[in-house]
Here is the input.
Amino acid sequence: MVLENDVEGIAKLADIHIQKEELGEFTSQFNHILEYFDILDTVSDGEEGEADLVNVLREDEVTPSLTQEAACANAHETEDGHIRAPRVM
Amino acid sequence: MVKEYFFEEADRTNAFITRLDLAMYEETGGPLEGKGIAVKDNISTAGIPTTCASRILAGYVPPFDAHVITHLREAGAAIVGKTNMDEFGMGTTTENSAFGPTTNPHDASRVPGGSSGGSAAAVGDGMVDMALGSDTGGSIRCPAAFCGIVGLKPTFGRVSRYGLIAYSNSLEQIGPLGRTVTDVNTLMSAIAGPDPRDTTAYDRPYTHTPSGNIAGMKIAIPDEFFGEGVDPAVAESVRNAIGKLEDAGAETMTCSIPSMAYALAAYYVTCTSEASSNLSRFDGVRFGPSVETKRSWHDEFRDHRGTLFGKEVQRRILLGTFALSAGYYGKYYAKAQVARENVRKDFLRIFKDADIIAGPTMPQIAFKLGEKSDPLSMYLADILTVPANLAGVPAISVPCGMVEKMPVGLQLIGRHFEDERVVDAAFAYEMEVA
Here is the structure.
């Protein structure tokens, strides 16, 4: 069972602002779904199925790819071929 | 030589987000030359807007083609537009779209299924012969069943996902939709094959001619596919269809998939967890509506994503963030991965004796618009389609009759990399009822 302030905390971790008036509905739907997920408690411990998977690796070589201009084409603020982002500090 | 393709069909179901009334194609001599193909709007198309039906990608024009689009162009196809879908593929009805819902071509008061609902409706309504969709937990097969057409989810790894805007990488595949098994087979031939840009893509090209000869094919029928929640009329229609496969020479047996008890929960924990990571790229910096760069990163980010993501997308990102958070990882994500392995083992066990597993694609006929307003009740509708994604096996939906004047889908699931056999079983059914 999670509470409204738990959902608010998760939303903060996920960088999604949830309106105050929507928190109640979000929380009740959340609990409804988590209750359903509890069926996973009936799964006994076992192996995760990765034994037969192999990593696919390649040499880290530069190959032809997007031009800087094409890569920046969808960005709204660019400067000298770079993309401007909000302040981190 | 470049030729013009005039796409003039009326869009009665809101199947398209972007349409190209004048589409171009190359005279390549390829198998799709001069064919109009619709493409789900989460597959990148150079020069054609690609939105994933989300406001957060408004105005985004990919600078490159997805691998499957490169293949379509080489095969001579004309890409006539981008189809409506549940935002980022998150839904079972195509109602979770920033562009409004698509309606079912058989009944405008019902949903077409989802999340590839626009692709299925465009094919079902005769606007195009074929379309591409993507299937994370049933998103090709569900709308194919609801719209009365054929849809194939290939084996995981058979088709490159390069250029597919990721939602849940370990589950999703691009696949073909069409009105006939032959059309689905043709489109599959064009898109399958290796691609160094998708390291999960195997070198298994698809060069198959469908055969209706299924004499001796062993078909297993899981009890769980006809259990609680499955509409008895849908179940009857599917059992009759399996009878037609017996008429064509197949042998049937019953089987059990005990892991289906928790498969749906394992699916939703896995896909929401992967979504919470994948969708963190939508930050308004490199594409989509712009952010205010003068504000601090987190403040701007939070408002941007709180405003532009739809509710279902927000819900799934939050669920995934929760399932992966410290203290809950073991209870949810780790358990889901064990559950997933159990699903795969159940399939492998059944496929020692059987060639195909058969059952309904969806437990009900197409819902009324607005019927599934509670998120969990919508999730529960995916119970019969998610097992194939968890196990990575190929599965097809082929129309098998009507209930209340709405189409029903027969689902046929096969062994890993036996997409051809799945297609043959569907083709045999199509021949038998023709």
